[in-house]
Design goal:
The protein has 336 residues and is of the alpha/beta class. The protein has helices at residues 2-23, 40-47, 50-53, 70-74, 86-94, 136-139, 142-150, 165-169, 182-188, 214-219, 221-240, 244-253, 259-271, 280-283, 290-302, 328-334; strands at 25-30, 56-61, 80-85, 99-106, 111-116, 132-134, 157-159, 174-178, 193-197, 207-213. The strands form two sheets. Strands 2-1-3-10-4 form a five-stranded mixed β-sheet, sandwiched between helices. A five-stranded mixed β-sheet has the order 7-6-8-5-9.
């Protein structure tokens, strides 16, 4: 009798488990580059079951040098996209691509200029650098702001091929950098560097934003909210809790990454207050201020990055899914 009861209970459990699994909403998140610490909160929410607790079966599609995930969102191949900064969202809106920003997981843009330590006395002195390595797309992005607001000159530009070789061989060289990446790589090569985070000088864009399609926002806001909430909780657990399971998934997706590098990246993210600072302290990670979105739009227009009148700023982002204090309780438990 006991064995029969045990079998019956096991069968019932399997039925319930199967029904629950079938009830999960399958969604796909595309990232903007190879798996790294800057994607950690999303991997954390997969690894520790947070997405599952929110009724989601989330697949992460990694970006990379040969992968462009941006068109995949509008085409319906992705449901959510981790993107770079608001300039990309301005471009989408200007071109009537039906996507919008629903959360921002970096309160500061990691874009920076990197120089050899002691080569220049301050940020303004970088305008005297003989050469500044800039990628083509960046020349039409924040470089225009640097020219407009600080007096950098187009004559300084040299093409950046995403290799540190030129920088390391020339003590007067300046180059664009991600504050959480190239400075760490340069230091590993024995170079002492100074990193100038553009956000500290007024470049006010959000970064690591999450975009989704307008049809999802309009027709399935509950799914969008569950994804945002679970991602926020994932980031709190990744920053302040046990991140070992997330590490395993990141290293599986990107074998060229290492635990040591992930640790260094997280240390830098915290040091620069990239994720949990400003509005997030009261409103929760992922916070968005629409006033700040408008402020950055004005900066982009003034600098000639964006043409005035081409962007309906009301379509760029929504704060409907953030600013609710989600995850603050998790952070409090993990940081007594």
């Amino acid at each position: 009798m006991k064995n029969m009861l045990k079998v019956a209970m096991t069968a019932a459990t399997l039925v319930v488990s199967t029904q629950f699994a079938l009830a999960l909403d399958k969604v796909t998140l595309g990232t903007n580059w190879l798996a790294q610490a800057g994607h950690g909160g999303f991997y954390q929410a997969v690894a520790d079951g947070t997405y599952e607790k929110h009724g989601l079966d989330v697949t992460i599609e990694m970006g990379g040098p040969q992968v462009n995930n941006r068109p995949m969102l509008a085409a319906g191949r992705l449901d959510f996209l981790l993107t770079g900064n608001l300039l990309l969202s301005f471009h989408n809106t200007a071109n009537d691509i039906p996507t919008t920003v629903i959360a921002s997981f970096y309160q500061k843009d990691p874009q920076a200029l990197m120089a050899h330590e002691g080569a220049y006395k301050d940020f303004q002195d970088l305008t005297n650098a003989p050469s500044v390595l800039m990628a083509k797309d960046t020349q039409y992005g924040f470089w225009r702001w640097l020219v407009n607001d600080f007096g950098f000159k187009d004559e300084q530009i040299r093409p950046y091929g995403y290799s540190l070789a030129q920088f390391l061989s020339d003590p007067k060289m300046v180059q664009q950098a991600y504050a959480t990446a190239e400075p760490l790589y340069a230091q590993k090569e024995g170079a002492k560097v100074t990193t100038y985070l553009l956000a500290d000088y007024g470049y006010s864009t959000y970064a690591n934003t999450i975009e989704t399609r307008l049809d999802l926002v309009q027709n399935n806001p509950d799914l969008v909210q569950r994804f945002v909430d679970a991602s926020i909780i994932g980031w709190n657990n990744f920053l302040y809790g046990d991140r070992s399971k997330a590490y395993e998934l990141i290293l599986k997706d990107n074998p060229d990454m290492s635990t040591e590098t992930l640790d260094s990246e997280i240390e830098m993210l915290k040091k620069l207050e990239m994720i949990d600072s400003g509005d997030t302290l009261e409103k929760g990670i992922g916070a968005i201020s629409l006033d700040r979105v408008k402020q950055f739009y004005d900066l982009a227009v003034k600098s000639g990055i964006v043409e005035d009148g081409k962007v309906d700023i009301s379509k760029v982002a929504t704060d409907a899914f953030v600013n609710k204090g989600v995850g603050l309780d998790v952070k409090k438990q993990l940081t007594p």
